[in-house]
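#onboarding

Welcome to the new folks! Below is a worked example of what a typical request in this channel looks like: someone posts a single protein sequence, and someone else replies with the predicted structure as tokens. Don't worry about understanding the tokens yet, we'll cover that in week two.

Example request:
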Amino acid sequence: MKEMSAPEVVAIVSELGARGVAAGVGGGWGVDALLGSQTREHSDLDLWLPAEGLEPAFLGFRQLGIDRIQPWPGDRPWNFVLHDGGRLRADLHLYELRADGAVHYGSALDGVSFPAAALEGAGTVDGMSVRCEAAEWSVRWHTGYPPRVKDRHDVSLLCTRFGLALPDGFA
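Example response:
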């Protein structure tokens, strides 16, 4: 599979922004956005999207040809992948902003809530300013499962740059 390029990330985030969708970059591209440069190859783009922005987001993705659902084990209505039939993949993470300002992710019965500040990081991709996961939350979300080589890479760089403690299992 061909890797996703920084200009393709910019095109996706720009298209969503033009449609009023406040997308936040997560995962590996979110790490690289926080660091201000691409440090490794990426096979997809993780995006945090407010659930109320799903319809205009779908229109934006369709405009870019990213309009097919790619079933993955563990897909849920609030987390699934869209693709273009080739190399472009967007891993969508839909959330709702609660009245108390917290973010709710997941089902009403077993979802999780976290501070909105977790999605208020600021970074750049290919010279464009993007909203992304905050560094400490990006590190947190890289834990809870056996770390892969790319997870060790990402977490190490974030901890070094932002003065964060390296989590257990990443030494």
